TrEMBL record:
Keywords: Membrane, Transmembrane, Transmembrane helix. The keyword Cell division does not apply. InterPro entries: CRAL-TRIO_dom, CRAL-TRIO_dom_sf, CRAL/TRIO_N_dom, CRAL/TRIO_N_dom_sf. Residues 1-23 are annotated as: Disordered. Gene3D superfamilies: CRAL-TRIO lipid binding domain. Pfam families: CRAL_TRIO (PF00650). This is CRAL-TRIO domain-containing protein. Residues 90-252 form the CRAL-TRIO domain. It comes from Vitis rotundifolia. PROSITE patterns: CRAL_TRIO. The chain crosses the membrane at residues 191-211. Signal peptide: none annotated.
Amino acid sequence: MSFDEKLEEARDGQGSMKINEMEQTKVSLMRTYVESQDPSSRDPSSQKVDDLMIRRFLRARDLDVEKASALFIRYLKWRQTFVPNGSISLSQVRNEVAQNKMFLQGLDKQGRPISVVLGAKHFQYQGSLDEFKRFLVYAFDKICTRMPPGQEKFVVIGDLEGWGYSNSDMRAYLGALSILQDYYPERLGKLFIVHAPYIFMAIWKIVYPFIDKNTKKKIVFVEKTKLSSTLLEEIDESQLPQIYGGKLPLVPIQDS
């Protein structure tokens, strides 16, 4: 069976795009409430607000309409101020892109785009976190546009080989976590953390309490001896990056 045939079979079995009756009722309630609080959500010129988008925010708050609505309204206001032009341009994130630390290529067996982040290539620099946050939005938006029909999530391989204290950036880690959980909820399908050095665990202990329970379930620390077998359970060899024994070269996020 070819990779495309396997992918189609996985999509058929996954049913991730189907909204059940209870969810549909809550989606309708939340849409009505959000539109009453923020009429801009009805504006055709604004970012598309479809039922699946609303469902992601609902699922992030365990289908609690009130909590999900509050999160979604905050997201709409953030998007209007932080991304006023609708997207982040490459010229706005040149310093971050120059670090050549994030890549996008291939799909896992469920059709989720695969991003690779090389932690040892991240260095903090003087000034605010604004460019780093813009880079995250640039990257997440690009990943979302690479999702095939019937898919809402992506996979990240966070590679910490060579990571040291010079790469440690607590403000960036917490900023990334906030953007992922608050503004791109239920987009992360799985995060594989590979080649994690012992010294990283000190940082992880500080970050861990800020990770919500839904996100925690998606994080997997992979043992070095089981790296290839673990990734191949989720990713076909034809779609796995070459650095992990697959067939695909790494493609910088800006070139993907």
